[in-house]
Design goal:
CATH architecture: Beta Barrel
Number of helices: 3
Number of domains: 1
Shape: globular
Largest sheet: 5 strands, mixed, barrel
CATH topology: OB fold (Dihydrolipoamide Acetyltransferase, E2P)
CATH class: Mainly Beta
Distance between the termini: 66 Å
Strand content: 25-35%
Structural class: alpha+beta
Helix content: 10-25%
Order of helices and strands: HHEEEEEEEEEH
Radius of gyration: 20 Å
Number of strands: 9
Amino acid sequence: MKYLTTLTFAMTLIASQAAALSCIRPDVARTFQNVAAAEERFVVLLGSFDFPPQRRQPVSNDAQPQQVVATFEGQGLGAAGFVATEPKPVTLQTACAGPWCGGFPTPGQTILAFIEQTDQGDVLTLSACGGLVFDADTAPIVEACMRGEPCEEGPLRR
């Protein structure tokens, strides 16, 4: 009986340690559709952010959101597709879900990002599950969505 109690305790401990954040895989087309329907205003940017490198927080029950002001350089999405924009400041802020927090993009890496336009300025929220930052090669999908063509991830269907 003592063995069974010890085994039950060990399994409970292992199960609680193995609990992890469960996220839906980010999808650029779904994100485009969600931000297009949102009350908040968003812009889609393709380019890179320049900011001092930030340390990634370890997973911890004390995890706190972080933010940094970055300079964006690249292109913005308009009716005609992506066009060059002037460099502009964008606040990058992480968001946490329990002990898990989002991470900052690599400075200088070209990415596609959905930026919220707020009264305080442009903000990119980086959640623990992702969903607003994508690889640059997803740009054709977003351009198709903007043109009103089929808006789905994967090879474009024409």
